[in-house]
Design brief:
Keywords: ATP-binding, Kinase, Membrane, Nucleotide-binding, Phosphoprotein, Transferase, Transmembrane, Transmembrane helix. This is histidine kinase. It is built from 12 helices and 18 strands. By secondary structure, the protein is an alpha+beta fold. The chain has 2 domains: 223 residues, Beta-Lactamase, CATH 3.30.450.350; 218 residues, Heat Shock Protein 90. Strand 5 and strand 6 form a beta hairpin. Helix 1 packs antiparallel against helix 6, helix 8 packs antiparallel against helix 9 and helix 9 runs antiparallel to helix 10. 28% of the residues are buried.
Length: 551
């Protein structure tokens, strides 16, 4: 046993070391594979974002190149471009035409806006306050047309944006560089509108050296950043160009909010740069799953499998010791079986003695001095047959009890076809079953076999019920023979009277009562349910009949 234990321990040590090495290798491989997969997914996402931004820059360039109007003081400059800009399907929020007008052209512009049906043709500043044109000595950038035209956008034309904090510098840069320029992030349509950017492309008139105006397209940030992919390995945010410690991210409702960057974040982000509107934008990627924890979990699973295999191998080597233990247990079971057999034999002897004592009492009382030998023989056979029937029922249930209704079978008592049995389905103990079986036989054997006063056989009703609350429930039994009387019913024998009045009630710990009514004979028996069921006897019998378990 010592040598076997040493060998088993040595194999277990080798298995543990191999399992740890395999878990370490799997941990490193999982980290590498997850890092490669995340980087590839980020590169693909950044490429898609760049393609989307390039499409929108191309739309602005194409739209600015399609302008061929000799005059810019028109409120329908986007009309010829509508089919073209919608063909690109770039989901812009608002497209606009911003004309660069001199002070003397503002009156004509106001008239044009009024004729176009815009809700407020007044020339005004970006904050909707009137623009003081008197003494104005510089050109202004005036919004003249919008697309789409709806209730929310019809009030925008007539505003000057050259003084707007975000759009003004953007228009100035687009005019100086003569290329599409993107603005900083800002709310679109209204102060609480979706966060987005505006792309402005300068428009040159024929043979003109300076921009005559700008074609603008505004876009929401969330679709540009492709932030609504729930199955991606990461979440994406846009670094705010106005602050190094702030970034813009999309919520579950696709609305963009600003948040402060936590420099102590446990998961370091990954950065990618995209170009849009002659500017570089930084995308920040955060992994949705902790690759370190995932690698640890995978390594733990591998280690667990290795330890399980080690345990199996060690178990095979311990099979010999287990066989020894099994043999020892079999010996203990055999000893316990012999003890159980002795107890069962003692119990059987006890029950046989009880049955023989009951039969001896039946024979003695039935064949008393002076009894009619023919009548005594029939009663003796019937009483022994009733005892035999109840013993058969108890043997079938392994002496666990007898269903009370089973005691009224035709083979056990006479005139069973004339007995109407009713009552709850209860199982009585072995001792109660023997007493009740003899009781029912005596009651049935003394019922009138001939005709009664009205020329009919007696009709018998056997009914029982259980009343009261646990643990003080009471068993009530009532036997009533209708269509009979004291004059027509066969008199009870001495044995019957002793059984009905003393033996059966005392065996069940209860009381009995016999009486005649005008039309029936009544026998009533009342006993506590704890003696009728006798759980202590049932528990003892159950222990003997239960299968033997190993010690």
């Amino acid at each position: 046993m010592v040598r076997l234990g040493f060998i088993t321990g040595f194999i277990a040590l080798i298995g543990v070391l191999l399992s740890g090495l395999a878990a370490y290798r799997v941990h490193d491989q999982e980290l590498t594979v997850d890092g490669i997969a995340l980087a590839r997914a980020i590169d693909v996402h950044a490429s898609l974002v760049q393609d989307r931004l390039t499409e929108r820059e191309l739309l602005a360039s194409v739209a600015s190149g399609l302008f061929r109007s000799p005059s810019v003081i028109k409120a329908n400059m986007l009309q010829p471009l509508r089919s073209s800009i919608y063909a690109f399907k770039t989901d812009f929020v608002v497209a606009g035409w911003i004309a660069r007008l001199r002070p003397e052209e503002l009156a004509a512009a106001r008239t044009e806006l009024a004729n176009a049906g815009f809700t407020n043709p007044t020339i005004r500043r970006y904050d909707d306050t009137p623009l003081q044109t008197a003494g104005l000595g510089r050109p202004v950038d005036l919004l003249m047309d919008v697309e789409p035209r709806n209730a929310e956008t019809m009030g925008f034309p007539g505003r000057c944006f050259d003084e707007q904090p975000i759009l003004g510098p953007m228009l100035a840069r687009a005019m100086s560089e003569m290329k599409p320029v993107a603005s900083d992030p800002l709310p679109l349509l209204r102060a609480d509108g979706p966060v987005g950017v505006v792309l402005a492309a300068p428009v040159l008139q024929d043979n003109g050296a300076q921009p005559a105006g700008f074609v603008t397209f505004s876009y929401e940030l969330a679709p540009l950043m492709l932030t609504n992919d729930d199955l991606s390995l990461f979440s994406v945010a846009l670094k705010d160009p106005r602050s190094d410690n702030t970034e813009l991210t999309a919520t579950e409702r696709s609305s963009v909010v600003s948040r402060t960057v936590d420099p102590q974040s446990p998961a370091p982000p990954v950065y990618r740069t995209v170009s849009f509107g002659d500017r570089d934008w930084t995308l920040t990627y955060y992994a949705k799953t902790n690759t370190m924890n995932r690698a640890r979990q995978t390594a733990a699973i591998v280690a667990a499998i290795g330890l399980a295999l080690t345990a199996i191998v060690c178990g095979l080597f311990g099979y010999v010791a287990y066989n020894n233990l099994r043999l020892s247990r079999e010996i203990q079971v055999r000893i316990g079986f012999e003890r159980r057999l002795t107890a069962v034999i003692d119990e059987l002897n006890h029950r046989v003695k009880n049955i023989l004592a009951v039969i001896q009492s039946i024979v003695t009382r039935t064949l008393r001095h002076g009894a009619d030998i023919d009548v005594a023989r029939e009663l003796l056979i019937g009483r022994i047959h009733a005892m035999s029937n109840v013993v058969s029922l108890l043997s079938e249930s392994q002496w666990q009890g007898v269903n009370l209704k089973g005691l009224f079978e035709a083979r056990a008592i006479p005139h069973a076809d004339r007995i109407a049995v009713s009552g709850p389905d209860i199982t009585v103990s072995a001792r109660a079953a023997q007493s009740l079986s003899l009781l029912f036989f005596e009651l049935a054997s003394h019922s009138d076999e001939g005709l009664s006063l009205v020329g009919k056989h007696p009709h018998i009703v056997a009914h029982w019920e259980v009343t009261g609350e646990e643990p003080e429930t009471v068993f009530h039994f009532r036997w009533e023979e209708f269509n009979t009387s004291a004059a027509t019913r066969r008199p009870d024998s001495d044995f019957s009277l002793i059984l009905l009045d003393r033996v059966a009630p005392e065996a069940l710990g209860g009381t009995s009562k016999r009486s005649f009514t005008d039309v029936s004979y009544v026998y009533e028996l009342t006993a506590p349910m704890e003696t009728v069921i006798d759980m202590s006897e049932r528990d003892r019998t159950e222990k003997f009949s239960a299968p033997l378990k190993p010690v």
